[in-house]
Amino acid sequence: MRGLFRVGIHDFGLFFVSALLLNIAPGPDTAYVAGRSVQLGWRGGVAAALGISTGCLAHVLAVAVGLSALLVASATAFTAVKWLGAVYLCYVGLTMLFSRQPNSTGPVRDGRAVSLSRVFWQGALTDVLNPKVAMFFLAFLPQFVDADAPHKPLAFLMLGLIFIFNGTLWCLGVAIVTARAAGRVRNSSRAMALINRSLGALFVYLGVRIAFSHAK
């Protein structure tokens, strides 16, 4: 613990509890992990969780080197990232909403039509292209770093990694529990089609929300 204070981190207990509560609060990331777990089993959920964590890591690194501050301060940069993210998410969502589903009423074999790498990158890009995630880390992490800290980038990085580690553990737990409970659902083509369209609607919702977001 002494090392944390040497780099300028304070109120670590409060940070840890706050980060834990924020991670377990229901949200789009949890919904995405759960949906992919139902579709593809625990491997799909793990791929989704690791993708989301990778996206968050990109923002934590950006905060550590000051890029997120530039993103929020520059209206042009914020708008560019905002629209890029919105277009990408809406495209993915609409593709899933209007994708053709098999008409067979027989079992669906693990939903292998969707590759694990695709699940991973969708999760990663969903966070990377969301400027609201950058704004969250930029607003949250500095609350626990001393203004005169000798190593601010290191302090931001340490707090961010702890936040992501907790979030990854939570998402992995969601993936495993959901996958175990979803055996019957995966054997129903109608249920799988509904889940696929629900995930598509989630992506479209995120895209629209990002499109109408504003830097503060």
Reading the helices and strands in chain order gives: HHHHHHHHHHH
Mean residue pLDDT? 79
Helix count from the secondary structure assignment = 11
Q: Please describe the biggest sheet, giving its number of strands, its sense, and whether it closes into a barrel.
A: none
| Derived structural class | mainly alpha
Oligomer: single chain
Radius of gyration: 19 Å
Helix content: over 70%
Query: DSSP strand (E) fraction?
Result: under 5%
* Structural domain tally: 1
From the spread of the alpha carbons, the general shape counts as globular
The total strand number stands at 0
N→C terminal distance: 34 Å
Low-confidence stretches: 102-112
Q: What do you see in this structure?
A:
With 216 residues, this protein is mainly alpha-helical. It has one domain (40-211). 76% of the residues lie in helices and 0% in strands. The chain has eleven helices and no strands. The radius of gyration is 19 Å and the shape is globular. The two termini are 34 Å apart. Mean pLDDT is 79; it is low at 102-112.
Which SSEs are present, and which pair or pack?
Layout: H1 2-6, H2 12-24, H3 28-40, H4 42-65, H5 67-73, H6 75-97, H7 116-128, H8 131-140, H9 152-181, H10 183-186, H11 189-211
Helix pairs in contact: 2-9, 3-4, 3-9, 3-11, 4-7, 4-8, 4-9, 5-6, 5-8, 6-7, 6-11
